[in-house]
Amino acid sequence: MTKLALGTHPFLLGFEQLERLVERTAKSGNEGYPPYNIEQSSDHSYRITLAVAGFAMEDLSITVEDNALVIRGRQVDDSEGRVFLHRGIAARQFQRSFVLADGVDVGEAIIENGLLHVDLNRAVPERVIQTINIRKG
After folding, report:
1. Among residues 121, 106, 118, which one has the least CA distance to residue 73?
2. Which of 52, 66, 110, 125 reaches 20 to 30 Å from 83, CA-CA?
3. How confident is the model at residue 3 (pLDDT cuts 50, 70, 90)?
4. Which residues pair with 99 in a beta bridge?
5. In whole angstroms, what separates CA 90 from the centre of its chain?
């Protein structure tokens, strides 16, 4: 039995891009840092929460690039002139990417108590019914 790829199934017309999107997501290289939650706050809205303790607002950036929400953090290493007996908290940078479906918009971002909240809203598409006329050829 031949295995069909998602984008080549005969009933899924125009979804070739979806297969590329899944491959890109699998290769995005997101490690386990920083930890995050994704919650559905209503039927059409979501909230991504990242644990960013130690990062100031100016250390963080949020962009949307090619249908992907990209959150970056870069801390400045301020350890010059300090002597650590133990250093378990490192100045670490990160990049976390989330692929957004068509119609999902990024709302506001809030940082509080070491948590970065990013709200997402999904537009509800109008139901469209189109009648196609048949003509004799």
Report:
1. 118
2. 52
3. low
4. 68
5. 25
The DSSP 8-state label assigned to residue 58 in this structure reads G
Confidence class of residue 22 from pLDDT cuts 50, 70 and 90? low
Report d(CA 52, CA 132) in Å as an integer.
53
Highest CATH level, class, for 31-137? mainly beta
Domain ranges, ordered by start, for the chain: 1-30, 31-137
pLDDT beyond 90 at 134: yes
CA atoms within 13 A of residue 41's CA, in its CB half-sphere = 14
Per-residue HEC secondary structure of 77-132 comes to CCCCCCCCCCCCCCCCCEEEEEECCCCEEEEEEEEECCEEEEEEEECCCCCCCCCC
62 within 8 A of 48, measured Cβ to Cβ = no
* pTM: predicted TM-score of the whole model, two decimal places: 0.72
What are the structure tokens assigned to 86, written together?
Answer: 């133990």
